[in-house]
Amino acid sequence: MPPISEKPHAVAIEERLFSLVLALIATEIGLTKADILSTVQGYRQRYVTGGDNASLERQFERDKDDIRELGIPLETIEPTDDPGSNHSLRYRIPKGLYDLPSDVAFTPDELMLLKLAGTVWREGSLSTESRRALTKLSSLGGESTDPILGYAPSVRAREAAFEPLAKALDRGTVVAFLYLKPGEIEPRRRQVAPRALVLHDGRWHLSATDQQASASRTFLLSRIVGPVQNVAGATNAPHSEGQAQAALDELDRLWHANLAEIEVEPGSDAAVRLGRRQQGTAPTETSLTLHYTDLNILADELAGYGPEVTVHSPAALRQAVRSRLVGVRDAHGIPSTHGEKSTDA
């Protein structure tokens, strides 16, 4: 049984997100929450008609955040005849945003190769369950005659540490791994009793008891260096779904507590991508407030936009972004007078 599932044989989160993206692109009129939960692979298996679906709805809310975090525009449509009703809201991903620009053209040979690639994508990406879901979506008003749907969602792949950690959860074993924290030169060995694997803000986290510190810790899987090894003779108590929910709740609290005030250049790539992360933001708005769970991850992302982003607060984030930009400048031998705006964070 997967460590984050609530029932045996639960659908993997990557397939659930993929099926959700597929369904939301397939519809022009949008789908209500009830349509999604009762139809889409990964939700429908746990949906109770006329029953309590509160935990499933919370999962859908987290999945919406993960989709937006991946850079996929998710639209919310409010019906004109029932304004303010959450039950009547419809969700969709505008397929038109992925259409090719009018000035882009392909030769016959290039089109042949693209069609071949599309066939491979179609056959390799749509499971039997996904095809069945698309058929059912047609009855809800979704036009899904194009199996490829013109879009290949970039759902993050699991880190190499995921599978051994999942096995450790199932078997109740203690594991050890090298963990490299931001700002440290050498990784440190950590020996932990895994409690839950959760996906939050588009990244996999391990909630565990650090046996050296005798305290609960949350580890980002992308910072685990090298193999995950079982510790001989050490045992771990069986995990529970309540531990996974507790880990997600803690990450949610951290995400809501951390706020970054930034300025983006109008019309820039940063304005488009970061603006999607803030609901209710007008397309022309340049002052943004972003929530985050990890300062260093956000600093890496913001530094990638260079002069398109100016960080106002917190000071630690501003300094972290500045140090990254200065490092890039110095590594390329750029005179400081040429990079003043970039290094102003």
From TrEMBL:
Domain (WYL): residue spans on this chain: 161-225
Keywords: Proteasome
GO CC entries: proteasome complex
Any Pfam family matching the protein: WYL
Stored InterPro entries: CBASS_pafABC_assoc_protein (IPR051534), WCX_dom (IPR057727), WYL_dom (IPR026881)
Domain WCX: 269-325
Name the UniProt record assigns to this protein: Proteasome accessory factor B
UniProt organism field: Glaciibacter psychrotolerans
